[in-house]
Amino acid sequence: MAPETYKAALTEAKADLADCIAELGTVHVRAEELEARIFELRQTIASLAKLCGEEYVEEDALGLTDSVRLALKTAGSEMTPQTLRARLQSMGFDISKYGNLLAAIHTVLKRLVDKGQVKDVGKGSYAWIGTSPTREEQLEASRRFEEARKIHRSHGASSSIESGWISGYGEIPKKNK
Fold it and tell me: What distance in Å separates the CA atoms of residue 11 and residue 77, rounded to the nearest whole number?
């Protein structure tokens, strides 16, 4: 092969690499958006199930490790094992199968620290250090989400869950007996 052919192949390979890296970044941003939405929906469903006097059992329930990862990823700040336990409960996580949930959470956190996914920030708090989108990626994702929401609403779709009326509910109202 002539040197020009190698140079052309190199240029093409570099362009392909740049395209793949850009696409991977987009996929990561979208995955984090979906994880956050799934978390919100689980929280909403768990809350509504409690209000309706029903038990929330998700057929596709996450295990403890994945639930801890999701809780830390979507928290946006550091958490103690106690706040993680409360967050898992608000997510609808079935804690009944654990004799000592806090001990299990501590074990999971230690393993996640060892894997480099979580950081022990001191004073018993932990933070997610996995890949997070940059500020520019977050703004772009928000812009795309708003565009999709406008299109969705222009077709007549609107729901209480979409409007987020129960997200951030704080304490669940108690049922009248």
Answer: 42
**Per residue in 90-108, pLDDT tens?**
877 778 888 899 999 999 9
When pLDDT is cut at 50, 70 and 90, the band that residue 167 belongs to is: very low
Is 163 exposed, middle or buried (CB count within 10 Å of its CB: 0-12, 13-18, 19+)?
exposed
Pairwise pLDDT comparison (92 vs 4), residue with the higher score: 4
Distances (CA, A) of 56 to 2, 8, 16, 140: 66, 58, 46, 34
DSSP letter, residue 79: B
Whether residue 103 contacts residue 82, with contact meaning beta carbons closer than 8 Å, is answered with: no
Q: Which two tokens stand for residue 28?
A: 């990561």
Query: Half-sphere exposure of 116 toward its Cβ, with a 13 Å CA cutoff?
Result: 1
Query: Rounded distance, CA 137 to CA 145, Å?
Result: 12
What is the C-alpha separation between 145 and 166, in angstroms, rounded?
19
pTM here is 0.47
Specify the fold of 3-160.
Arc Repressor Mutant, subunit A (1.10.10)
Distance of alpha carbon 93 from alpha carbon 63, whole angstroms: 9
CA distance 42 to 34: 12
